[in-house]
Amino acid sequence: MSFRTSLSGLDAASTDLSVVGNNIANSATTGFKESRVEFVDVFATTFTGVSGNTPGSGVRVASISQQFSQGNIEFTTSNLDLAINGEGFFVVDDDGAQSFTRAGSFTTDREGFVVDSSGRALQIFPPNNNGTFNTGAISSLELSTGDSAPAATENVVPTINLNAQETIPSRYTTFPIDPSEFSIIDADTFNHSTSTTVYDSLGNGSPATMYYVASDPSANEWQVYTYVDGNELTMNAGADNFFTMTFDGLGSFQDITTTTGTTASSIVPFDGLTLGNGASALALSFDYSDTTQYGGGFAVNGLSQDGFASGRLSGIEIDQTGVVFARYTNGQSDLLGQVALATFPNTQGLRQLGDTSWGETFTSGDKIIGAAGTAGFGSIQSGALEASNVDIATQLVNLITSQRNFQANAQAISTQDTIQQAIINIR
Questions:
Q1: Partner of 22 at 20 to 30 A CA spacing, among 36, 190, 287, 345?
Q2: Shared-domain flag, residues 168 and 280
Q3: Looking at the predicted structure, is the pLDDT value of residue 422 above 60?
Q4: How many domains does the chain have?
Q5: How far is it, in rounded angstroms, from Cα 159 to Cα 247?
Q6: CA dist., res. 104 & res. 80, Å (int)
Q7: Reduced to 3 DSSP states, what percent helix, strand and coil does the chain have, rounded to the nearest 5?
Q8: No. of H helices and E strands in the chain?
Q9: Cα–Cα dist 90/128, whole Å
């Protein structure tokens, strides 16, 4: 019996050495969680009829429990590197088989899917059309490699101040405004001008220039002529090629009128302009409600428009809640989804699968899928990785302890052998 008792101690110490060695070997493995050996003593259950305590029968390994404590967050240079600060696992898919990991070193495959080092696709909540996410389903995160589609300009908002001290240009009354003359004698045909770039349906940019003429300073009236790429914009099916803005005595915008008598509060809708490049007719509306006429210099305080050219993917951004944005060179962004996280009622019950991942079991309980930062789920740090939670100093001490346990049990066997040999030699 003594041999068996000490042999059980050797087996237990050997298992402990293996676990400690595995912890040390994975001290630099991203997302690795250390394990701990838990022992229980063994007692014979045979009734001997002897009162009092009976000697034990050795030791056995009750379990090798995983320790899911938080690892250190280490920052990297890749936005696709993700770390979880708090509870949860990334959900990855390998041809329909789901597994769970804390190792967030993701990259893209040749088809544009975001995958880990084993080729398993990161799972997300897909976006809805209204800026929310479909949390009732998950899918693989795919980065689009195509161009972002352009959008034609529809609305232009000039925010300017027209100088209330301006007078009528000297040549304006006898020489109609003509873009071909502007480069020759600017000050004699108009007072001020400003321009911005507008875009057609194909994403081609064209300069839109607005010319302001103090047509009747005593009545606080300004005429505005607008050209796109040298083409005059008209209103009312071509009947008007300019409009008049009127201001009150405090310099605030009052209204807009055209030569045909059309009055507008602030928005001027122009006729569609065909540029002859295959794009749809460019239909622009200008909103002058924030225009003022104060004394002092002409000032462009703002000039915005809502069109943009096509763009190429320039980067990926992931916020703390796991929302994934694709940024494009045209300044636009697309919502690609929200990273899905999983938790379990009993993380100790997860089955280790290798490749720093775990599988769901009956003991772990059913997975709970949710978003970062909600209902107990941790937050996500983009451009960072969670390091192994192995403490090398602690493991080295454990290694010495396990070695001493092994040696002690081996010595106990040697002692028993000596005693038994002495008994055998009795004559």
A1: 345
A2: yes
A3: yes
A4: 3
A5: 14
A6: 8
A7: 15, 40, 45
A8: 3, 30
A9: 21
